[in-house]
Amino acid sequence: MAFHSKYVCQQCGYESTGWMGKCPECGTWNSLVETVVSIGKGQGIKGKRGLNTFVSKPIKLSEIKQITTKRISTKISELDRVLGGGLVPGQAVLIAGEPGIGKSTLLTQLAASLSTGDKTSSTVLYVCGEESATQVKVRADRLGVKKSGIELLEDTDVDSVINTIDGFKGQSLQAVIVDSVQTMTTSDLSGMAGSVGQVRECAFRLLKEAKSLGIPLFLVGHVTKEGTVAGPAVLTHIVDTVLWFEGDKTLTTRVLRAVKNRFGPTDEVGVFEMEDRGLRPVDDVERVFLEKDQKHVSGSVATSVMQGTRPILVEIQALIVPTKMVIPRRVAQGIDSRRLELLLAVLTRRCGLPLYDSDVFVNVAGGLKVTEPATDLAICLAIASAYFDKPISAKIIAVGEIGLLGEIREVVAQAKRVKEASRLGFTTAITSKDFDYVGETIKKLLK
C-alpha cells in the first residue's frame, strides 16, 4: 500500500496538493492541514454513493457478549486510584502538565513498577524523544531504578518505533512510554515535528499498534501558555485517558487529575509529594493540606472538599488590611476570584461587614485548587474572623454553600465530610443543619 500527503481545510474540507496560507474556498487563514492518504486495494469506489468495497454489518446489542476486563495494577496507589483501579490492556493514556512538574519522573517510576529484573519476563519500552538515554539513566539512578526490564529507545521516527514494538516477540511487553508525542514524526508527511498533521498521525499510529497488541500506551503531551494540551484537539479525543499533572513547583505537593477516562471516573485525584528519591504517593492527605498543630490565630477555618470519593480537609486562610488604593484589592489563591467577589458582596450586604475599604486576601493552604461551593461557609467565616481579629476554634469545621440571600445550603456528601472530620479530631461541625444564615453564624462564633 502506498502513501502520499495532501492538505485538507479543517473548516470546509477543501483539498489541495500544496500548502496555502489562506483557503481559497472559505477564506480561513492557516486552516490547511497536511493529511496522509493511502492508495491500495480496497480503496476503490463502488456505485454512485461512493461506498467502499468492504461494507460492515450492524450487530444487535443483545448479541454482543460482555467481556470482563482484568485491570493491571501499576503498584502506585495514587495512580491506580486516578485510573479507576489500574490499567486496561490496550489503554492509551495522555499525561500533560507544565515543564518540570514531574511527568518524566512519574513515568520512570511507573516503568520500574511494571517491569521486573528478568528481561525475558516483563519489559517496558521507554521511547526517548526529548532526552537521550544517558539523561534518562541519570534520572533513574537518582530514583534508585536499576531494573534490566526497562529498555530505552532513542528514536523520533514513529514507524521505526512501531517496528521495534513488533520486534518484542516472545517477551512480555508490559507498556510503552513515549516522551513526548510532539517529538514523533513520520516520513509520510513533510511537516515538522509538533505540527498538527504530524502529532495527529503519529498518535493515531501508536494507538493502533497498542490496541492491536493489547499493550498500555503512555504519551507525554506538551502544554500551551493557556494551560491546555498542545497540538490538535483530536489528540485528546482519540486517547482513552487524559491525566493532568499539576502543582506549584515551589512546593512539594503534586496533584494528578483525570480530565477524561473511558475506563473509570473523572473526579478522582491522586496526591504525591516530590522528594529526592522521586514522587511518593500520599495516603494520609490531610497531613499535606492541614497542619496537625494549628495555631490559634484569626482568619483560619478548616473545611472539607470532595475529590472523587475521598473527602480532603483543607485550611482556608484570610487576611484583611486597610486599603491604600481607590479600588480595594481582592486576591484569591486556590479559589475562583469571581466566587470571592460574590461572597464579599453577601458579607457586606447581608452580614453588615464594611469590606469596601479593605484589601481582602484568601488562600487555600497547601496549594490545592478548590472549585466546589462547599467551601463558601469556611471562606466567609475566615474573612469575618480576620475582620474582627478573633480566632475560631481549631476543632471547628465549616461545610456549606452560601446563597445570595445569605442562607447556608446543604452540599453533596455533607454527612461523609463531617464523619471524616470527626475521625480526624474535629469536635464541632458548622453546617446547614446547625445554622440557617451565615449572619447568625458569625454572631454566634465571633460577636
List the main descriptive attributes of the protein structure presented here:
25% helix; 447 residues; Ribosomal Protein S5, domain 2; Rossmann fold; alpha/beta
Task: Explain the overall architecture.
With 447 residues, this protein is an alpha/beta fold. It folds into three domains: 1-55, no CATH class; 77-283, 3-Layer(aba) Sandwich (Rossmann fold); 290-446, Ribosomal Protein S5, domain 2 (2-Layer Sandwich), CATH 3.30.230. The protein is built from eleven helices and 20 strands. Strand 10 and strand 11 form a beta hairpin. 39% of the residues are buried. The model is unreliable at 41-52 (pLDDT under 50).
CATH fold description of the largest domain: Rossmann fold
Which stretches of 5+ consecutive residues score pLDDT under 50?
41-52
N- and C-termini, Cα separation = 81 Å
Strand content: 25-35%
Number of helices: 11
The total number of structural domains is 3
- Strand arrangement, major sheet: 6-5-7-8-4-9-10-11-12
Instruction: Tell me the CATH architecture of the largest domain.
Output: 3-Layer(aba) Sandwich
Q: How confident is the prediction overall: mean pLDDT?
A: 87
- Coarse structural class: alpha/beta
What about the largest sheet? 9 strands, mixed
Shape: globular
State the helical fraction.
Answer: 25-40%
Record field, number of beta strands: 20
CATH superfamily caption of the largest domain: P-loop containing nucleotide triphosphate hydrolases
> What's the CATH first level of the largest domain?
Alpha Beta
Radius of gyration: 27 Å
